[in-house]
Amino acid sequence: MGARRFFLTVALATALVPSFGAHADVSYRVEITLVEDSELADLTDKVSELKTLADKPPASEEALRRRADRDLGRLADAAHSLGYWDAEFSYDIDIEVEPAKVAVTVKPGPLYHVSSVDLLGADGRPLSIPQDENKLPLKPGDPARTAPVVAAEGVLLAAFGESGHPFAKIDNRRVEIDKDAHTMAVTYTLDPGPVMRFRLRSVGSKGLTPTMSRGASVGSRAKSTMRTKSKRHAER
Known about the structure:
This protein is α/β, with parallel strands linked by helices. The chain has six helices and eight strands. It has helices at 2-16, 38-47, 49-52, 61-81, 147-162, 218-235; strands at 28-34, 88-94, 100-107, 113-120, 169-178, 183-191, 196-202, 208-214. The strands form three sheets. It has a three-stranded mixed beta sheet with strand order 1-3-2, with helices on one face. Helix 2 (38-47) crosses helix 4. The longest helix has 21 residues, at 61-81. The protein is elongated, with a radius of gyration of 31 Å.
């Protein structure tokens, strides 16, 4: 009985002794050094986990480095979104100071620009943009940002919808980055779908009710338009 009490006392004492091998969370401060472009600086502050999670310090130096590694990918995406496709990122961690210091260096590189915006039909031939093509949020000479590339799809579909092609759809979007020329070329492949004509018919005292009928094949119409366009180019 006495021996059992002895072992119980030893076990309880051991449990109450603090573990000197345990590591406390690693508090840190981060500095992001960025050359020029205040917009990119603001965006990196917003997407950086090192910045946004600074009040939640990691449990170890290794965890802090994993957080910094993840940041490199997030910062690269941020730079690309603004047209900096050659941006370079690196970081250095000084764990010997209190709090630890994380220095992130951002080299944006040259700002890329849009070289061309092309629209192709389902058959691979050039397709004309209905109405005003200047409504597109993406034009040659613009900074090569990613948001306008996506936004242009909605504008294209709306333009075709208003021109009698309510079932138009984007089949493909190709973005080509030219590292030598520092440019971005964008090509959309769009299937206009059938032409739909709207007519108004009278329904007694209820007034006019719109009806929709299927028109001629858009494929043949698109080919005819493209052939005319090609012919004009040849005459020039």
